[in-house]
Amino acid sequence: RIEGSKRPDETIIYSAHWDHLGVGLADASGDTIYNGAVDNATGTAALIEIGRAFAKAPRPQRSVVFLNVTAEEKGLLGSEYYSSKPLYPLARTVAVINMDALDPFGESRNFTTSGSAQSELLDALVDEGKAAGMTYVSDRHPEAGYFFRSDHFPFAKRGVPALSWGSGNDWVDGGTEAGEAAGKDYVAKRYHQPADEWDANWTFAGMVHDLPILYRLGNDLANSTRWPQWGADSEFRAIREATAAQRE
Ligand SMILES: [Zn+2]
């Protein structure tokens, strides 16, 4: 946690889960170790590096917490635990920026989020992306329910504006054809399988390009007095409004 210089009791959270599935059924090659290199060592590494960047920068006005939760794969248990027993009040938690299974390949021209729940936090992310020359595409598979399947959700359902960043599929090198193919390949051959392991071909150029966007999103909020709210038709808006008096 980096304590805010002016409003330390107001908190921005960056989150990522560090667990994966452990040791389990062998795959065709006999491998039983579920490494989780993409899901979610990438998000964990991103969390550490964003934390490092904040530690080196001038202290922000609000506090910033780096929350590396566990047991996400068993049903969001870590983030559910934190949000049910928060160290810093949720009513004064400005936003949650979650990172789960980032793309370790090259740069993309677009990005997405898990679910497309409308909020001023998402608007701010879209603006930050635009400033970096990137296009936002809404969740391409809302029927898969990804919005409800990562660590931002226990916060969202308690009213805290929260989103989970997703890498893009329109690669600078190869366009959507290459990006979509890599996504399908990952889901078919590595997602939640022992083969989700480090690969010497990974360049991480996309993460290097994208993570400053998430840094700026959190840093801007941490140096403002804004409280982003959910969209007008969001099911989470009323829950957030119920604690409005605690933000005055
Ligand atoms: Zn994950």
Fold and architecture overview:
This protein has 248 residues and is an alpha/beta fold. The protein has a single domain (7-247), classed as Aminopeptidase (3-Layer(aba) Sandwich), CATH 3.40.630.10. 33% of the residues lie in helices and 17% in strands. The chain contains seven helices and eight strands; from the N terminus they run βββαβαββαβαβααα. It has helices spanning 37-56, 77-84, 120-131, 153-156, 175-189, 205-222, 237-241; strands spanning 7-17, 22-23, 33-34, 62-69, 93-99, 110-113, 135-136, 162-167. The strands form two sheets. Strands 4-1-5-8-6-7 form a six-stranded mixed sheet. Strands 2-3 form a two-stranded antiparallel sheet. Strand 6 (110-113), helix 3 (120-131) and strand 7 (135-136) form a beta-alpha-beta unit. Helix 1 crosses helix 6 (205-222). The longest helix has 20 residues, at 37-56. It is globular, with a radius of gyration of 18 Å. The mean pLDDT is 95. The protein binds zinc ion (ZN). The site of zinc ion has 6 residues, from helix 1.
